[in-house]
């Protein structure tokens, strides 16, 4: 009656080519341990399922249990049988983190009535209903597969953590490192150079002794192929030199642990060592991050370490930044963690390079606190992939936090490590309330060596997951999408900037190569889908900065006149809430062509007006009470709180703060324009419509303009003639001033209609230029700032020294017993969301906002 079925049953004894291929594929990656004969033929297996639904419901899976022993895989056998066996295998491979394998094309068969009846029986099963049928928060039954959390292996509240996966070339020691969190009781000030710091001569292997060296380090020319837990197979070699006895004081180096980075150590003197950092894997560059261990220390000796292959010509080490040191004995006995240490710190150019790529050196001296101690050195406070997993495990196992924080797997990295996605929001009471919520997207660690981004993210999560009234209010009105570690592979192997693809992920947000850049591809698609559902009011990617102090934002200038200067309001508010950490003066809003592939610019072009990159320094602050001191982990975590605090100010239904900040921004821009004209020795009346001036041209950094070959030749001839004639000093000044007058000023061009402000004369006078407004009815001319400032505030401004001042008032709190958050004092009085389900807030007088005055 069924000739096709009879033919299929006759051929069941023949080997299936696809099954044979999958057997070898799974066995190669170590996920298949059973014998080849125990893998059932898919045709026979589907035939049994289709013709005996009781067999499926009984829970007896026969030999299949030997192949897939864990409950998650048993659950997959209960999926509707109208899915082809190929789909089952591909989902199984994805859940195991195995690279996808394309199967040969097979014609799909429609679901027959008998199969539908089997599905109806399956859906009535209590086992299946408890696992796969979804009941949404409004009580409606949604008969479909669950979200990806059940399709991927994921740690449970009582299960072990997923160990990190390493490239197979990497050797990894079998030790679990853990550092305690500790805040220094006293401020850690910058190092003050004396001018007598020694510049050690680079000796190298010819005159020194190699005491530690990684041999197999994949560099440029090689590429990532596969990964496994524990990295390279085989016995882990001892790379440090063997001590000759108890009197041997040679330091023992090690960096083959998570986030570690040290390739070679050379002993050039009794207590002096030259260190070479490992480049980012599969590249020949990006040496900045370091993190390594030393053992066999001596207490009374002064050691000198010199890193010889840094690549950046400028560094915060030139302005007083100190390396970090961690003593294991101090941590065990005195509960002391990472601290800034070092003397005779110098950052200088290495003159022994190969001539193709200049290297720079960092040298410092140190005295260890104990004999026979184990110490660590790092560029900044480490935050590893395992640290993140431990934190997320505590959240998942918390019965309260897990109610409003849903942990999902966004994707798998190249090495198969999980990229986590957190969705944080309070449950909604009605569908309308759920749809009305706006979204906020935050991410960190796209650059793995910028661990300060993880500490800010941790501070944000600590606050948004707390029982604070403000945190509950934020969860009521927003849906937070958080990707806490975008580049787990780079974090694990100790890279500074790249993924295992050997590329900077923050330049590939426009990519279509899902297989090469999965973390970025899935993040962008997640945000794209989110924008289709609801408005995203804020996108912020947390980074670290190696050349500037303080914390600041990079944003994007809006071309829409309706939202002119609006993208600067959030950074200005943040500078008021954290005046001793955040510098609005360091913010920049220019979109450069080389930054088109960054997350900030791509999300802005997708429609998120407030799209930022938050840069936090590796050093410290030059502002307020924290001036000339290093940032601690507590300082960075407090900034995560201030992001939440500023978000409430920014979205306050009472727009008083927003409009005052907008007026202040216009006044600041007005002053900047005047400053530009004064630099050119001109005067201009800006009482008219001046809002059409191009912001990008006003804020453009002082760079030498590009010159043609003819201009470069003329300049070279002029310089040669000046050297020969030994001209007096004022000649180049007059020449430079003349060339300045010949250049056409560009900072008052109309960004939408450049022809309306094009100069008509060859040598125009700046005071004759007329700036045409676009719409007189919607002029954005700033009001008089004196009308916004009360008389008492103006008197206070006259008596205080120049700078920004803030009026402080106590923050509302409905939980007096709640533990105070350190260093999180609000700077503005609260008048936000007067009508909430927790009661009506008290109306308070809004303080005045003073104008910045920059030196």
Automatic annotation (TrEMBL):
Annotated compartments: Cytoplasm, Cytoskeleton, Cilium basal body; Cytoplasm, Cytoskeleton, Microtubule organizing center, Centrosome, Centriole; Cytoplasm, Cytosol
Cofactors demanded by this protein: Zn(2+)
BP-aspect Gene Ontology terms: proteolysis
Residue ranges with Polar residues bias: 806-818
PANTHER family linked: CYTOSOLIC CARBOXYPEPTIDASE (PTHR12756), CYTOSOLIC CARBOXYPEPTIDASE 2 (PTHR12756:SF41)
Reactions catalysed according to its record: (L-glutamyl)(n+1)-gamma-L-glutamyl-L-glutamyl-[protein] + H2O = (L-glutamyl)(n)-gamma-L-glutamyl-L-glutamyl-[protein] + L-glutamate
All copies of domain Peptidase M14, residue ranges: 381-651
Family assignment from sequence similarity: Belongs to the peptidase M14 family.
SUPFAM superfamilies: Zn-dependent exopeptidases (SSF53187)
Keyword Metal-binding attributed: yes
Entry GO CC: centriole; cytosol
Residues the record marks as active site: 615
Name of the protein in question: Cytosolic carboxypeptidase 2
Stored InterPro entries: Cytosolic_carboxypeptidase (IPR050821), Pepdidase_M14_N (IPR040626), Peptidase_M14 (IPR000834)
PROSITE patterns: PEPTIDASE_M14
Coiled-coil features, chain-numbered ranges: none
Primary site of residence: cytoplasm
Region annotation (Disordered) ranges: 795-833
Annotated organism of origin: Ursus maritimus (Polar bear)
Pfam family, one: Pepdidase_M14_N
Keywords: Carboxypeptidase, Cell projection, Cytoplasm, Cytoskeleton, Hydrolase, Metal-binding, Metalloprotease, Protease, Zinc
GO molecular function: metallocarboxypeptidase activity; zinc ion binding
Chain's gene name: AGBL2
